[in-house]
Write a structure and sequence with these properties.
Order of helices and strands: EEEHEHEHEHEHEHEHEH
Low-confidence stretches: 141-162
Radius of gyration: 18 Å
Largest sheet: 8 strands, mixed
Number of strands: 10
Mean pLDDT: 91
Shape: globular
Distance between the termini: 26 Å
Strand content: 15-25%
Length: about 280
């Protein structure tokens, strides 16, 4: 496996941190990994290595306000800038043979890849969205939301504590310990990022059937961070309007399917879908 780490200039200036994993043999496909809120691409190295063993090339990016990338922690000037960051990473791909490219997002990243497929011009082969932020299980209290809306108008970069319960990430206690000790994770979110993501989630649900490429959507029923029932609702709406969507619910799994105790089954399902919908279609 060949592995590189480097910085890429975003369209508006910030340096985006990129991890690139390349198999020794010619890759069958390319996956662009988009991490979740408050974390970074370094938490997906083990997952990227699994793809590489299946002869799949991986690009993983820290989008703005996260990980090794520049910017105020947990902030974006507007939601569209997050999609710009995905676009910058996709444009970085060296793909002269035209290998199929799939974008794969987790949590907020799952929200982002669905919206990217909906609203940006692209030649992607498919989308994988796991535990997407389409609806939060625990909504902020009314007074907190009102305060945040005011702050969005007068101080859009004001930093709040997201109050993310990291114990709900995985049943594996080591995942929680590692997250807590990780210097690149954080719990910060600004009104601009929060409300932009919420609006994008609602817009994605409303337009679920407009995605024209295959989608794999997966969610754990034990997820207390984002709503698996809303993911199921999205999948049903998309299927009813003709979209090629595969929905998989994982009984009792928590938020991070790739970090759950039985994540072998999760990866096997991803590869099953990849082989049928992307590689051997």
């Amino acid at each position: 496996m060949n592995r590189q780490e480097y910085y890429l200039a975003a369209r508006d200036g910030p340096k985006l941190f990129i991890r690139h994993f390349q198999p020794e043999k010619n890759a069958k496909a390319i996956v662009v990994l988009v991490h979740g809120f408050s974390e970074h691409s370094g938490r997906y190295v083990h997952w990227a290595e699994r793809f590489v063993r299946q002869e799949i090339e991986v690009y993983a990016m820290d989008y703005r306000g996260h990980g090794n990338t520049e910017g105020i922690r947990g902030h974006t000037p507007a939601y569209s800038y997050l999609l710009d960051d995905i676009e910058s990473c996709i444009e970085e791909i060296n793909n002269p043979d035209g290998k199929p490219v799939v974008i794969y997002g987790q949590s907020l990243g799952g929200n982002m890849v669905l919206n990217y497929a909906l609203w940006r011009k692209h030649s992607l082969a498919g989308v994988i969205s796991t535990s997407p932020w389409l609806k939060l299980v625990t909504k902020p209290k009314t007074i907190t939301v009102l305060f945040a809306r005011i702050l969005r108008l007068i101080a859009p970069r004001f930093i709040n504590d997201s109050k993310l319960d990291i114990n709900m990430l995985s049943h594996d206690p080591q995942v929680v310990i590692d997250y807590e000790k990780d210097p690149l994770t954080h719990s910060f979110i600004t009104p601009q990022l929060f409300f932009g993501s919420e609006k994008a989630a609602r817009r994605a649900i409303k337009n679920a059937g407009k995605i024209t490429i295959p989608i794999l959507l997966m969610h754990g029923t034990g997820d207390l961070v984002t709503s698996w029932r809303t993911s199921e609702k999205f999948a049903k709406k998309a299927k009813n309007t003709g979209a090629d969507i595969t929905f998989v619910k994982w009984t009792d799994y928590y938020h991070e399917l790739h970090n759950e105790i039985n994540n072998d089954a999760v990866f096997d399902k991803i590869m099953e879908w990849m082989n049928i919908k992307i590689i051997n279609k």
